[in-house]
Amino acid sequence: MTEISTRHLLLDEVRTFAKSYLVKAGMNAAGSDVLANLVMMSERDGPRSHGLRMLPVYAQSFASGYANPDAMPKIERTAPGVLRADADNGYFQIAAEMARDDLIAMARENGIAALTCANSHHLGAMRFDTEPLAEAGLVALGVVNSLSMVVPHGGVRPVFGTNPMSFACPRDGASPVVWDQASSVVALMDVKMAAAEGHDLPRAGGLDTSGQPSTDPNAILETRSLLPFGEHKGAAIAFMVEILGAALAGGTLSVNNEDREAHGALNVKGGATLIAIDPSRFGNASFNDYVTRVCAEIEGNGAARVPGDGRLGKRAEATSTGIAVSTALLAELGFEG
């Protein structure tokens, strides 16, 4: 593996730099605050592929006219438990933050509520969409479809996006349980990062030009054909996300790439759905005890850990001491701090 030169940055420095980069790219104050915080959290918790490395992607989306840097999302209530958002061709996280208080209130009122969002872009880890809901005492599920690059099991061409999903739930006396994952073996940005850092993937994550599974990130980037995790099981989950994301929200299907390709963009304007559930309205007064028991059965069980808890150690260390960032990346981004 190629040795990488790094520079140490505090999280506030990461956020401040990301904010200035996005403002220079044309973003308004409110939107740049949301995305700068997302970049910082990605560097803090992981995946790093969704942090500072994503800034040029955001900038390109604005410069090409594909995304709206001055987006003003509109939120409407279409049913007692349903919010529908039009992100004004901006990033989903901006609309989700605008809708969050209403979504929480509706879940508490009805027991369950959902937010769908179309005319939007999503390039960050989904855990940051669901974690605030769990911090409010709710169970949350989030999905979003993305550009087609995942080959269905047994297929020869991509149909689905990496189609990530996230789950979060409250946990007594500790941070919420939060996990997110792609429907593919590996996310595209992790393939790009492996190529940039000069190392193979730990396991076959896509197809090479001969149609064979490969660990070579450059070969996978050439075909842009990723494998679903768990073979047919991952492909089935990718299908579910396509329906809950694109179809339910009215977003762009993963296979509809014409607009994206015309702008040289990394994402389709897919659909996103967040579902929030108030466990106190479902009749089991011992819900929190159940969560605690399941987590206890996992912890101390060999090398097992509660899903998503790996981020907590990274978060504590990064919050205390900052993070190491590739000097080559900082130079590419024009960091002068």
Automatic annotation (TrEMBL):
Its EC number is 1.1.1.338. It comes from the Bacteria. Keywords: Oxidoreductase. It is an enzyme of class 1 (oxidoreductase). Pfam families: Ldh_2. GO terms for molecular function: oxidoreductase activity. This is (2R)-3-sulfolactate dehydrogenase (NADP(+)). Belongs to the LDH2/MDH2 oxidoreductase family.
